[in-house]
Each structure stands twice: as structure tokens, then as C-alpha cells.
Amino acid sequence: QVQIAESGGGRVQPGGSLRLSCVASESGSSLYTMSWHRQAPGKEREWVARVFTDGNTMYADSVKGRFTLFRNNTKNTNILQMDNLNVEDTARYYCAMLGYWGQGTQVTVSS
Please, how many CA atoms are within 13 Å of residue 77, restricted to the half-sphere of its CB? Predict the structure, then answer.
């Protein structure tokens, strides 16, 4: 059983930044791809970003150029740096690995 825990959500004004963290209990998490997803009220969950074991990343078009994902394998963590946030980014953000999901962290972008 892998435990996933997200943190760092909050409320920010449009144009602001937030940094989300994801910690995996699995000591070998460096061997696996980790990803972020989000779900806004009334909408389906959507994929946001993915970081591969070699550190390479992929992003959804909606966040490309604004979000940066990187991992710290020694700490079994990854960081999602979110800049230039807009109201459409408001959602609950989830980290996932190996089919395990965290409880999510809420991000609200509002003026």
C-alpha cells in the first residue's frame, strides 16, 4: 500500500503562484512516474502534468508554460510550481503514482 499526500493548496488571486508538494510513502518512488490531476466542481478529473523517472515532464496544454513539475527522488517527493494562475485553475489537485491517489489539496483562484 502506497500512501500519497499532497500539500500546498490555498487561495490566491489571478496572476498569483502556488507550490504544491506530493510525498509518496514508497521509498522506491524514484522508479515510477508521478502525475498530477485536478477536478473542478461539476467537471471530470483531468490530467495536469507528469514527471518520468528521468525527470522529463509532460504538461496539459492548458497549463503548459505556467506550471513546472520536478521531483526530488531522495525525498520521494515532487513539486508542482504553478505560476500565473487564473480562475480556470480552481480545482482540487491530486497526486498519483502506481494507481494510488492522495486525498488532494484545494486550489482556489479568485479576486
Answer: 15
